[in-house]
Amino acid sequence: MHTLILSHADVVRLLPMATCIDLMADALAAASRGDAVLPLRQVMRLPNSPNAFGLMPALLGDALGAKIITVFPDNASTPYESHIGVVLYFETTNGQLRAIIDASSITAIRTAAASGLATQLLANKDASDLALLGGGVQALTHLEAMMCARRLKRVRVWSRSAERRAEFIRQAKQRLNVEAEESASPQDAVRDADLICTVTASREPVLQGEWIRDGAHINAVGASQPTSRELDSAAVVRSRMFVDRRESARNEAGDFLAPRKEGAITDDHILGEIGELVAGTIDGRRSERDVTLFKSLGLAVEDVACAAYLYKRAISEGAGQRIAIGGMRDGAH
């Protein structure tokens, strides 16, 4: 039995952002309809550190898979990305392992694509002033996703690291032909912004409610553990809040759990899932002055949807490498 191996470069070439946004719409709508098997992710915390090892399985139609990944938030100060691992993709007739795919690239693209989808569904149509809090890998892919969702006129970036801010500005120009501006503080970055993406490794709030202009849309991405948050309670309270999955948010999203623990909100503050917005079964933005919030945690159905697409496209184009890793009985060919 031969298994396809797809590298970081393969994924980047084969999975365009606009295509991935469409994949996320289909996958999240299926999850909200109940047409996917999606257990809560299993996370093993490493002792005495913020680091974690995660397993995220899912079944989406006839696509079966799992992402196995390490999450090391402090990698921001190293050459390594914060999320490192693989996505395993199986078929459901004999359980064959069809592909092993780089997870860092899938995670970077599909996370931003989900935010792009949420922005298409929730942001004001004329939103054009983007603030990025965080200057790492997700900042660049989120810029690309926001460019797919809206016509941008201004882009500002803030990061605690001046080097990261400078590198982001360089990469935005080189890769996306976008002139980004450097901000000295998160407050300066979000002043008058109508699109805000928080993509930091911070465990404490970097965005305060009093800074957010009426009508803004927020994609809160960086905090994916119950003990981490990027938004203060005031920011969450004043927002119409939507999530990728209710069950996940109520168990894992510090941006939701912290204000709930304070008594500032209840479970009802989550108004719905992005998949329900795709299906048109719930209302999103009610007026141009609403502040809307998409709290993203990332779901395994997103990874599996990407893996299924990548496998089919790679086979059709002859991309990737094949290796024999077993799985067939002795003597079978």
Summarize the structure.
The protein has two domains: 2-106 and 300-324, 2-Layer Sandwich (ornithine cyclodeaminase, domain 1); 124-295, Rossmann fold (3-Layer(aba) Sandwich), CATH 3.40.50. Helices cover 37% and strands 24% of the residues.
What is the chain-wise order of helices and strands? Answer: EHHEEEEEEHEHEHEHEEHEHHEHEHE
Integer-rounded radius of gyration: 19 Å
Structural class: alpha/beta
Number of helices, where a helix is a run of at least 4 consecutive DSSP H or I residues: 11
What's the CATH H-level superfamily name of the largest domain?
NAD(P)-binding Rossmann-like Domain
Helix content: 25-40%
Overall 3D form:
globular
Q: What percent of residues are in strands?
A: 15-25%
Average pLDDT for all residues: 94
Specify the biggest β-sheet. 8 strands, mixed
Please, how many domains? 2
Beginning-to-end CA distance, first to last residue: 8 Å
CATH class of the largest domain: Alpha Beta
Explain how this protein is built:
With 333 residues, the chain is an alpha/beta fold. It has two domains: 130 residues, 2-Layer Sandwich (ornithine cyclodeaminase, domain 1), CATH 3.30.1780.10; 172 residues, Rossmann fold (3-Layer(aba) Sandwich), CATH 3.40.50.720. 37% of the residues lie in helices and 24% in strands. It contains eleven helices and 16 strands. Strands 1, 2, 3, 4, 5, 6, 7 and 16 form an eight-stranded mixed sheet that branches. Strands 10-9-8-11-12-15-13-14 form an eight-stranded parallel sheet. Helix 4 links the parallel strand 8 and strand 9. Helix 2 packs across helix 3, helix 2 packs across helix 11 and helix 3 packs parallel to helix 4. It is globular.
